[in-house]
Amino acid sequence: MGPSVLCPSLVFLFWALVMVFLGIPSVQSLRFDLPSGHTKCIAEDIKINAMTVGQYNVVKNEEGASLPDHQKLTVR
Asked: What pLDDT is stored for residue 5 in this prediction?
């Protein structure tokens, strides 16, 4: 066997990996920057018949500052 001949198991592994990566669906994210006191309903931004899983973070405007008690996040 010369160096240009590939082992059949390596060829199979290569094509198996190609098929796995082609089968992975694309992932998209949504980000909303809302000023304090504003509301946003994201139901309009979610596609019909799509499964939606969410994670949210409340971010402070200034480093070292604590979030005021009156800021509220409602998730349904």
From this structure: 62
pLDDT band at 25; cut points 50, 70, 90:
low
Q: Which residue has the higher pLDDT, 28 or 47?
A: 47
Residues 6+ apart with CB under 8 A from 58: 67, 71, 73
Pick left, alpha or beta for residue 19 (phi over 0 → left; psi -120 to 50 → alpha; otherwise beta): alpha
pLDDT score of 43 more than 60: yes
